[in-house]
Design a protein that fits this description.
2 copies of one chain form a homodimer. Chain A has 153 residues and is mainly alpha-helical. The first copy, chain A, is 45% helix and 5% strand. A two-stranded antiparallel ribbon of chain A has the order 1-2. The complex binds FE2/S2 (inorganic) cluster (2 copies). The site of one FE2/S2 (inorganic) cluster has 9 residues of chain B, from α6. The structure holds a DNA duplex (30 and 30 nucleotides).
DNA sequence: TCATAATAGGACTAAAAGGATCCTATTACT
DNA sequence: AGTAATAGGATCCTTTTAGTCCTATTATGA
């Protein structure tokens, strides 16, 4: 019932890319330092993101990572599912027929409803929104654009 | 991002108990058959539920499981958390300070909001509601206490 | 052009959690 | 007291997760 570490890192990577100028090429090492991700582990995360088509990678000297699409067109759900696969709260929601009791299972409907709610929520958040730093002004120009800033923990 | 199997089983156990007469004593074997849970694994699930105080166990011949409280007073969240521990979508929501970036992390607020939503939803569902079978009538023979071995399959 | 340095890509290994099973202690019934 | 039925806990195996290492690829500069 919790996000994997890899997915957490993935989100940070995309947010970091989204908070830079569009189509900027950023070496993964810079992202690792900025977001406190173990450098060696980052490679694996990047691989998953690239395979899902969310980012583009450029090898060789002067290479790095680049958003494949505008940040506003990538949702939080897409990033998480790129790493973890489709979000299904329970096994029977992933493989219909896995549970022989499904027809008379009273809880099934609840899980499905909650999952739908969760997905809708994650779909509603785009990387562009997350890129606007609430407390720390990364880019001064966009400082006034952000709406109500949620309070930190 | 998915429920553990053990928690899934736990919910079924409590629902099964809730759908019988109040304070009924049901041997775990009957529950295992009714809910298609591996009999040997069920012991572990039961142990967790009993330790959390959700059910009461009676050892020895004629013993079995029993709801510790009225079904209406136990929520879906309580059952899940009894097995999995507190529901926290991300590590930084479990241990504040685990992530050094928390102050400037843009995603944190989103996770917290979604988690809050999820918890509220699970809190709103009681075992009594789940016990009422929506469309399918439960087998009348097994509605009583521990009579004999229920008909197989 | 060729050597070199910088970079991502994928294979590999250790650790943790999940899933399941066995055996033992306890109770009631005969 | 003996016996059968039942939960409780300890234990083992499997799967997933987290992390590291090495290799292939590309641009750059001598
Ligand atoms: S069959 Fe899906 S939750 Fe029970
Ligand atoms: S610090 Fe909690 S999500 Fe980033």
């Amino acid at each position: 019932m919790k996000l994997t570490r890899e997915a957490d890192y993935a989100v940070r990577v995309v947010v970091e890319l989204a908070s830079r100028p569009p189509a900027a090429i950023v070496p993964s090492r810079a992202i690792a330092e900025q977001q406190q991700i173990p450098g060696a582990f980052l490679a694996k995360v990047v691989c998953g993101l690239a395979r899902a088509g969310l980012i583009r990678t450029l090898r060789g000297s002067g290479g790095g990572l680049q958003l494949a699409r505008p940040a506003a067109e990538t949702t939080l759900r897409q990033v998480v599912e790129a790493i973890e696969g489709p979000i299904r709260l329970n096994r029977c929601l992933r493989e219909p027929g896995a549970c022989p009791l499904q027809s008379r299972c009273q809880v099934h409907g609840v899980w499905r409803r909650v999952q739908e709610l969760l997905l809708r929520e994650l779909d509603a958040v785009t990387m562009a929104e997350l890129a606007r730093t609430p407390g720390e002004p990364r880019d001064p120009r966009t400082a006034g654009a952000s709406a109500g800033a949620p309070a930190g923990s």
